[in-house]
């Protein structure tokens, strides 16, 4: 009798402390945790595709482009086979201590997804993306172009009708995804429409698991975002050309411009002060440097307080350069 009591106590303890206990379903999963899991899964898929494409970087360019939708779907199915199919959790969910619960089950305790639900979730995730990328090619394969086996008029009508149907289905799917996301923000379940269709809900793998973020991390993020917003506001107000000319004059001395003036004037006029090429329709703005007409005119229109990028002098109205040429005959 004592053995039976102890055995029942062990079963009760296992039922309360195991991963399939009903206690873990009482703690709701934060919305941000579910969205972070989706972002981690997307980043993993992109990382796998990048590593896979690098294997063919020494091959002919564009080798994978014709089969890119199929290869992406195949890699996604491989990830599904070794993550979701094996443990009812994606990689992102595993990192956040989450996994899928079967909401179609009438039991209050945790129930993993069935094989049919896992297969349906994989098809609803990879299938629409592949169909969207291959819709045009599928229409061409059906002979709906002008050179198809059917007449040109019938081909045009059929192609237009199918394209309209595909566009309508795409719009309905996007609208349904938007409505599902709004419901997710309201209730906190099923951030993706495919999860709601197959009855998959993210729950914690262990009871009483909470999202722990230290204040040090939050303060660092807030400080960085504030500093980035300050730079975005400040940088457009800085005249980089004038600042560059000022630093140049300080570093190399104020007499650098005069030193250049002592050189041959024609040597200074051999290149534009903005583009560095031979000046086209050379113009000057009051200093000794010469600019292409279109270069200096466009910069003056964009910046009313333009300064010479070479010497830092304030730019006036562009004036054409006049050069006196002396003709000397041979003796």
From TrEMBL:
Question: One short Pfam family name for this protein?
Answer: Pex2_Pex12
Question: What GO CC terms are in its UniProt record?
Answer: peroxisomal membrane
Q: In which pathway does it act?
A: Protein modification; protein ubiquitination
Ranges for region Disordered: 1-25
Q: Which reaction does it catalyse?
A: [E2 ubiquitin-conjugating enzyme]-S-ubiquitinyl-L-cysteine + [acceptor protein]-L-cysteine = [E2 ubiquitin-conjugating enzyme]-L-cysteine + [acceptor protein]-S-ubiquitinyl-L-cysteine
Q: Sorted alphabetically, which PROSITE patterns does this protein's record hold?
A: ZF_RING_1, ZF_RING_2
User: Which SUPFAM superfamilies did the record assign?
Assistant: RING/U-box (SSF57850)
Q: Which residues form the RING-type domain?
A: 272-311
Query: What membrane topology does the UniProt entry give?
Result: Multi-pass membrane protein
Q: Which CDD domains match?
A: RING-HC_PEX2 (cd16526)
EC annotation? 2.3.2.36
Q: Which GO terms describe its biological process?
A: protein import into peroxisome matrix
Compartments (UniProt record):
Peroxisome membrane
Q: Which UniProt keywords apply?
A: Membrane, Metal-binding, Peroxisome, Protein transport, Transferase, Transmembrane, Transmembrane helix, Transport, Ubl conjugation pathway, Zinc, Zinc-finger
Q: Identify a single GO molecular function assigned to this protein.
A: ubiquitin protein ligase activity
Its main subcellular localisation, reduced to a broad class, is: membrane
Matches recorded under Gene3D superfamilies: Zinc/RING finger domain, C3HC4 (zinc finger)
Q: Which family does this protein fall into?
A: Belongs to the pex2/pex10/pex12 family.
Please state what the protein is called.
Answer: Peroxisome biogenesis factor 2
